[in-house]
């Protein structure tokens, strides 16, 4: 027991004694009040301890996969993939350390115009929706909604919290301090399994963000990777599973037909490409855009989302938006209104990258010039309902077959997928 928890129990005891002293006469009523005070404190302590335990388990399972999972994604994953912050000079593409700020063009564009409140949508539930997100593509779709709320143009009330790593927001969801979070898809499954079904996926927010880039342009298909050396980040996490799956399904043995050089940070991969040590790499957006600002001859030769879809008939998934099941059941009207606003926001972001780029820099920390170029390649899209279930279950099954622990040890049940 920690010192803090000892103090909580001590306070409960003092409270109980105070009740005994104040109430004096009626022994039964006094005992009842004392027991109630102590029970509430102990219950609060137990709840906090349980939440901390689950949070620690999730952190251990996903410590190298939960960055903006920009890498899976994020991702959206090596060293916290969904924590990626391309504007932080020390963070890696998988969510840990990022590219130097001075390497990115600092030009900005005019801020996006706000939209009017949709008067046809009436919400009587006045509860503010508390949403957590990561610094990367999985939160970019919320940017316009953030601005509209600040300007009094949204239907619902919101509280937004943006962090660098998934393990900074998932504990808050578990404790009930957040209602929704935008996180890597595999982390959502881990969360579902660890909390025994206490969360649901409202929708996919980002499709695949992984690309094969080359100094030159001689690679035209996956089979052209045979005999090549590929530099990448994300060993032991979803980027590796994605690459191995796509290579295998195209008739290549990942252990024999290609050489994969794993680096801990995207900056190392970019440096190798820049120096000529490497000529082929796998990188996520927005790191591809960052790299292209430094290497003029760098080209995107393969979109791994397209390659995945060619194999499965369904898109790869990077990020999802998760809700506490208890909140969803208590506020169905809010959920419906939120999904409508969320869809409009993601569509606006995709259609107006120049306008929202300054907001991305302000809210997420990705430089405006990088965001403007990267957004069209980040595959930001809100997918809900049966289509979401089909795409996400397919993606999780591929991960499960390669490493069950990458999704929490088991495939989620049907109640993992929110249905209005």
Q: Beta fraction of the residues?
A: 15-25%
Oligomer, anyone? single chain
CATH homologous superfamily (4th level) name of the largest domain:
Periplasmic binding protein-like II
Q: In CATH, what is the class of the largest domain?
A: Alpha Beta
Structural class: alpha/beta
CATH architecture of the largest domain: 3-Layer(aba) Sandwich
Q: Please give the order of strands in the largest beta sheet.
A: 3-2-4-11-5-12
Query: N-to-C SSE series?
Result: HHEEHHEHEHEEEHEHEHEHEHHHHEH
Query: How far is the N terminus from the C terminus?
Result: 42 Å
Report on this structure.
- 50% of the residues are buried.
- The protein has helices at 3-23, 27-62, 137-140, 143-150, 170-174, 185-194, 238-249, 266-275, 287-294, 304-312, 325-330, 332-351, 353-363, 368-374, 385-402; strands at residues 67-70, 129-134, 158-163, 180-184, 199-207, 210-215, 229-233, 259-263, 280-284, 298-303, 317-324, 380-383.
- It has 2 domains: 3-20 and 27-62; 63-420, 3-Layer(aba) Sandwich (D-Maltodextrin-Binding Protein, domain 2), CATH 3.40.190.10.
- The protein has 15 helices and 12 strands.
- It starts with a helix and ends in an 18-residue tail after the last helix.
- The protein has 420 residues and is α/β, with parallel strands linked by helices.
- Strand 7, helix 7 (238-249) and strand 8 form a beta-alpha-beta unit.
């Amino acid at each position: 027991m920690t010192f803090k928890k000892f103090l909580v129990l001590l306070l409960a005891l003092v409270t109980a004694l105070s009740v005994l002293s104040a109430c004096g006469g009626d022994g039964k009523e006094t005992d009842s009040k004392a027991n109630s005070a102590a029970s509430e404190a102990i219950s609060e302590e137990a709840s906090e301890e349980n939440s901390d335990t689950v949070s620690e388990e999730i952190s251990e399972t996903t410590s190298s996969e939960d960055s903006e999972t920009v890498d899976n994604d994020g991702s959206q994953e090596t060293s916290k993939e969904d924590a990626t912050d391309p504007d932080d000079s020390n963070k890696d593409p998988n969510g840990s350390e990022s590219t130097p700020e001075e390497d990115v063009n600092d030009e900005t564009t005019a801020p996006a115009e706000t939209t009017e409140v949709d008067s046809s949508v009436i919400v009587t539930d006045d509860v503010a929706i508390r949403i957590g997100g990561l610094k990367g593509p999985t939160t970019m779709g919320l940017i316009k909604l953030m601005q509209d709320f600040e300007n009094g143009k949204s239907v619902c009330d919101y509280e937004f919290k943006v962090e660098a790593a998934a393990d900074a927001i998932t504990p808050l969801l578990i404790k009930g301090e957040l209602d929704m979070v935008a996180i890597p898809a595999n982390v959502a499954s881990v969360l579902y399994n660890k909390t025994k079904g206490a969360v649901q996926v409202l929708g996919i927010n980002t499709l695949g963000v992984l690309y094969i880039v080359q100094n030159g342009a001689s690679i035209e298909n996956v089979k052209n990777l045979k005999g090549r050396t590929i530099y990448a980040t994300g060993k032991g996490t979803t980027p590796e599973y994605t690459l191995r799956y796509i290579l295998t399904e195209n008739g290549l043995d990942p252990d024999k037909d290609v050489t994969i050089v794993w680096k801990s940070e995207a900056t190392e991969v970019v440096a190798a490409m820049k120096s000529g040590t490497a000529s082929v790499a796998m990188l996520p957006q927005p790191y591809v855009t960052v790299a292209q600002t430094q290497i003029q001859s760098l080209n995107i030769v393969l979109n791994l989302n397209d390659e995945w879809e060619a194999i499965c008939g369904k898109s790869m998934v990077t990020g999802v938006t998760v809700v506490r099941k208890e909140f969803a059941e208590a506020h169905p009207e809010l959920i419906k209104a939120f999904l409508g606003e969320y869809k409009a926001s993601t569509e606006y972001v995709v259609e107006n990258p120049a306008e929202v780029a300054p907001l991305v820099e302000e809210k997420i920390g990705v430089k405006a010039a990088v965001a403007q170029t990267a957004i069209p390649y980040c595959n930001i899209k809100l997918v809900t309902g049966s289509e979401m279930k089909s795409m996400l279950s397919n993606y999780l099954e591929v991960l499960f077959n390669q490493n069950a622990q990458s999704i929490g040890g088991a495939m989620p049940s049907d109640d993992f997928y929110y249905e209005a």
